[in-house]
Amino acid sequence: MSTGRLYGVGLGPGDPELLTIRAARLIGEADVIAFHCARHGRSIARSVAQPYLREGQLEERLMYPVTTETTDHPGGYEGAIEEFYELSAKRLAQHLDAGRDVVVLCEGDPFFYGSYMYMHERLADRYEAHVVPGVTSVSAAAAVLGKPLVQRDEVLTLLPGTLPAPELARRLADTDAAAVLKLGRTFGSVRQALEESGRLGDASYVERATWSSQRVEPFAEVDPATVPYFSVAVVPAYSRGKPGAKREPRAREARGEVTVVGLGPSGPEWTTPEAEQALARADHLVGYGPYLARVAQRAGQRRHASGNRVEADRAAQALDLALDGASVAVVSSGDPGVFAMASAVLEQAESPRWAGVSVRVLPGVTAAQAAAARVGAPLGHDYCVLSLSDRLKPWEVIERRLKAAAEADLVVAIYNPASRSRTTQLASAREVLLAHRDPRTPVVVARDVGGAQEAVRVDTLAELDPATVDMRCLLIVGSSRTRVREQPDGTSVVWTPRHYESG
């Protein structure tokens, strides 16, 4: 006997008339109707599908045994819910093995935060499985609001309210339009994120869209105690907060300006007060995505994140924004003038197109300074800073400069020592340095200084293993005068004396 077929059927946002014709037909034809429900046994999905059910159908109630707050399962909530999905899949598999077609009801769309997907993951490789899409709550919310979600080249971001408020705020500020789902218990943090991103005044609250009990209000006016899970926040695009109106920028000077800001190597404690003030005043923040994520969200600011290899495009974007009269902050890790964005912005600013835009550069703590401080004072005397990246300059130039620094007995701070695509340069650099340095020369290997994965060690030039070094590392290679001393607490202190004796 052949096995039955599995169907994940989207029911839409709640109005039974918004089911697709195919969804209604499959519900009526199915041998088994399965639906998730809470401990009380009632199911919203079943109530939506009720008009299409027929007598004689088997019903499988997949009753959630836990909530996120309460469970006695030894594996906690995750363990309990995983066990529930496994047992539910086995129950459905018994019907499928018996040749019965099974329809799993799912509010909204089965593959859009839907409960069906967990059954699909466990059964689709063994049984014929089909998914019937449904109208999502986001589409329904836009319909009842009478506002388009996006148009032309605008970007819509869909966010779960369960994200931390700072992450929500960052993403809300980065996008044109947004919808935030899974409110309920998360309403407070979602409201905080909307306020921090400057989007609270534009946001609408839609509860149970298309139901007879639907509710629509400005988000800022909603009582948190009245918010159920089945609600969504809808934030229109900046340019369409009101028909035909532009979103007014915060007060600023008539002429735009670009300020290139150094954040330091990691965390807010490394950022100077001067940099903080510039970030707070900016209308726009421009930068590499992970660096922008380190900057606190402020109401009214727009963020423009980009990848790590588009420095020229990023600089041009910042200058264009300033040309329109905005105050723009371009963020860099460490110091913006050390292998970072300051040069890229100033190079682009030479074009006559941006002749009216002023550029300022605010310093930051460099990675070399942070790494040196962790071990003492290896940069206490003359030193040079050199990048091993040959993306913007040929390796021959790097090798010639390494040799010159080694012959001059300079301490060398090495940036960009290795990456996934650059695996041989550090070994070559080590050989160049060994031709002029004692094999016992101390080498500081500092990784992610100030970050969660910080690790700092002191090797010798002879023992340095290039395979242990990656892009997040900075190296400091000592001179002939650099000293290493073990301290009473077991750590090594490294320093280079300021006096220099010839001979």
UniProtKB/TrEMBL annotation:
Pfam families hit by this protein: TP_methylase
Record pathway: Cofactor biosynthesis; adenosylcobalamin biosynthesis
UniProt GO molecular function: precorrin-2 C20-methyltransferase activity
Keyword Methyltransferase belongs to the record: yes
Keyword Methyltransferase (UniProt): yes
Superkingdom assignment: Bacteria
Domain annotation Tetrapyrrole methylase: ranges: 5-217, 258-465
Keywords: Cobalamin biosynthesis, Methyltransferase, S-adenosyl-L-methionine, Transferase
GO BP: any one term: methylation
InterPro entries registered for this protein in UniProt: 4pyrrol_Mease, 4pyrrol_Methylase_sf, 4pyrrole_Mease_sub1, 4pyrrole_Mease_sub2, Cbl_synth_CobJ/CibH_dom, CobI/CbiL, CobI/CbiL/CobIJ_dom, Precorrin_MeTrfase
Family: Belongs to the precorrin methyltransferase family.
Name of the protein this chain belongs to: Precorrin-2 C20-methyltransferase
Species name: Saccharomonospora marina XMU15
